[in-house]
Design goal:
192 residues, alpha/beta, Rossmann fold, five-stranded parallel beta sheet, three-stranded antiparallel beta sheet, 5 helices, 8 strands, 30% helix, globular
């Protein structure tokens, strides 16, 4: 699903990462680790097509096949969860986005707040809704940057179960807590 060969990224003279070799097929979860500032977030943004690499080759599926979760939830704060998911459902041309939205909101414990504005949500609730957004169009490749960020224990346990159920997808997951997903990882990419 995704292949990177000799991939690098620089901002001027500052090297973010270089010579990254990565191949991710369906059924694999690649765990990206490294200290703060090692380029994990930038790598995921490059893999998602949100930033251009400085060098190397990158082959990835079309944008509609990619689900990207970054540090920001990328939600419209003045809209409700239903309105956010309806918008993204139309953008991704999800045929039955209303049904899928309802199922995801129920699964992630947000059905009861489906008519409230996202601006009233805690950061953890926004993270849950962002996960709904990422999964809405049923992407084959998931790029997740610190997906456990701001989740309470129940939310983290739900995400653990969800990741285990997504074993047929290609996943690239960056985290500061690799122990949380180590049992699911098929490979590890350590950035320095």
């Amino acid at each position: 699903m995704l292949t990177a060969h000799d991939l690098s990224k620089r901002f001027g003279v500052k090297r973010v990462f270089e010579r990254v070799e990565l191949e991710v097929a369906r059924g694999e979860l690649v765990l990206v680790t490294g200290p703060n500032g090692s380029g994990k977030t930038t790598l995921l943004r490059v893999l998602a097509g949100l930033a251009a690499p400085t060098g190397g080759e990158l082959v990835r599926p079309r944008r509609g096949e990619i689900g990207f979760l970054g540090h920001e939830p990328h939600l419209y704060r003045e809209l409700t969860p239903l309105e956010n998911l309806a918008l993204f459902g139309r953008l991704y041309r999800v045929p039955e986005h209303r049904e899928r939205s309802g199922m995801l909101l129920e699964r992630f414990g947000l059905w009861h707040v489906r008519h409230e504005r996202v601006s009233t949500f805690s950061r953890g609730m926004q993270q849950r809704l962002a996960l709904c957004r990422v999964l809405l169009h049923d992407p084959g490749l998931l790029l997740l940057d610190e997906p456990f960020n701001a989740l309470d224990a129940d939310g983290a346990a739900l995400l653990d179960r969800t990741l285990a159920e997504l074993a047929d997808r290609a996943l690239v997951l960056a985290t500061h807590d690799p122990r949380r997903v180590e049992s699911l990882a098929t490979r590890r990419l350590a950035l320095a």
